[in-house]
Design a protein that fits this description.
The chain has 1 helix and 17 strands. It is mainly β.
């Protein structure tokens, strides 16, 4: 009988802790619009606690392939310390490079074989290209934000976060210079908090060559 009571008590305590933990979490829904009010797909969102000591998301091992003379995917968002492998599944050779301050590297002309993964330790934007095919373009965004993601076809993205105040920032490959967009968002007692962000300036024109995940607008 005593053992049964202990088990029931432990289960009740665990249930209470789970309920309390759930009560401290809420869903943040962010919608991003272009300057004309249309949904903006493919935008990168980062969320950080204001005045907090939030830790970056754990490092990952990602893959950015090359197919039909294009990077697949053409945009990765990763945390510092993550690695990215660049296989070439294309029928032609490519020579990948980056001159970005956050990560400078070059993978000499190759096809099929895999170079060792490239490690990204520094926070920042990394622009990737191919010395053979000028239309190939991709980005790796390295962020120390604990929460990040990209908007869907409706310009929306959501994440579950503990209650508090957060700084939400937006980046898009076609955003014009000095058009950075950010807002502080308080997450209170409600289970769901929605915020809409709208760009102040029109997007830069899409490149004439190639089709990218951020050109859906």
């Amino acid at each position: 009988m005593f053992q049964t009571r202990c088990i029931i008590g432990a289960v009740a305590t665990l249930a209470g802790l789970l309920k309390a933990a759930g009560a401290l979490a809420a869903t943040l829904v962010v919608t991003v619009q272009a300057s004309d009010g249309q949904p903006l797909a493919g935008a990168v969102l980062t969320v950080r606690a204001v005045g907090g000591t939030g830790h970056p998301a754990p490092p990952v091992n990602a893959i950015m392939d090359q197919v039909d003379r294009a990077f697949v995917p053409d945009l990765l968002v990763i945390s510092p310390g993550s690695t990215v492998e660049f296989p070439n599944s294309d029928s032609v050779s490519h020579q990948i490079y980056s001159f970005s301050p956050a990560k400078k590297f070059q993978l000499p002309l190759y096809r099929g074989k895999r170079y060792p993964p490239v490690r990204f330790d520094q926070v920042g934007f990394v622009t990737l290209g191919c010395n053979i095919h000028d239309s190939m373009l991709a980005y790796v965004l390295v962020t120390d934000a604990p929460y990040f993601g990209r908007t869907d076809s409706k310009g929306s993205w959501s994440v579950d976060v503990p209650r508090g105040t957060y700084k939400v920032t937006v980046w898009h490959p076609r955003m014009r210079e000095n058009a950075d967009l950010g807002r502080e968002v308080p997450i209170g007692d409600t289970e769901r908090t929605a915020v809409a962000l709208r760009l102040a300036k029109p997007l830069q024109p899409a490149p004439l060559e190639g089709r990218h995940s951020w050109d859906a607008y």
